[in-house]
TrEMBL record:
Species in which this protein is naturally found: Hoeflea ulvae
UniProt keyword Transcription, yes or no: yes
Record's keyword terms, sorted: DNA-binding, Transcription, Transcription regulation
Identification of the protein by name: IclR family transcriptional regulator
Domain IclR-ED: from-to ranges: 80-260
Residue ranges of domain HTH iclR-type in the record: 17-79
Record flagged with keyword Transmembrane: no
InterPro entries the UniProt entry points to: GAF-like_dom_sf, HTH_MetabolicPath_Reg, Tscrpt_reg_IclR_C, Tscrpt_reg_IclR_N, WH-like_DNA-bd_sf, WH_DNA-bd_sf
Family annotation (PANTHER family): HELIX-TURN-HELIX TRANSCRIPTIONAL REGULATOR, ICLR FAMILY (PTHR30136), HTH-TYPE TRANSCRIPTIONAL REGULATOR KDGR-RELATED (PTHR30136:SF7)
Amino acid sequence: MNDTPESDDVKSGKYTAPALSKGLDILELLASDADGMRKSDIAKALDRSISEIFRMLAVLTERGYVSFEPSTERYALTTKLFEIAHRHPPIRRLSSVAIETMRKLALEVNQSIHLAIQHGDDILIIAQVDAPGNNVTSVRLGARVPMLQTASGAVLFGALSQSESKKFLQRAKNGEPDILQSFLENVRTFEERGYCESRSAVIEGVFNISVPLRDYSGAIIAALTIPFITRLRTPHFVSREETRARLVEAGQEVTALLGGNAFTGA
């Protein structure tokens, strides 16, 4: 879209909507706290009065974006924003196209599988299929997990521009050095092999295997991932190597269904 005098004014901050800004500040703050927050803590974090924060919380609660738990006096995000995001055609199409392939693969290899996109410095799970067996290791639909801690994140890192990746790594340096080092090794693995396979950073005994989904230009738009667990005393157990091969094929299949080029890039 071409810049206009109006768009220049918006960029410069000439036009303001204080109530909207306060509401968005609250939503963004609550998105970073899974346990919810009391209104006094919200007011303090945003440097606002409790009365103006209360008015905004009342509206957000009434509209269903925020929930209130009387026993703890905490406000938390509902899933409404996530549901709205799924009405957005690109995400809706991505998950709807991928889901049948995911179900088929989960049944074939008896492993859970999830689909993730980049969301800031996190990955966001937009589709998830459980393994058909009794023992399940899966990630909750709608969960956000730091990119640094996941194989999906190493794959999605390849979607960042040079400037974005540089800024991301600068922010990552403020965290634990060993986590960053493992992440960079996973990125190199993906660049060399076209998939990422690494030990889970949060669950012992789980190997995360992740492959990219690409658009028509070959750019990465999502990651398809299996948190692989070794099943004992299971007939027809599918090995990690075979599971990886089938996941790679599934990623290529979904990419083709999306009209993308599975063989461009890494």
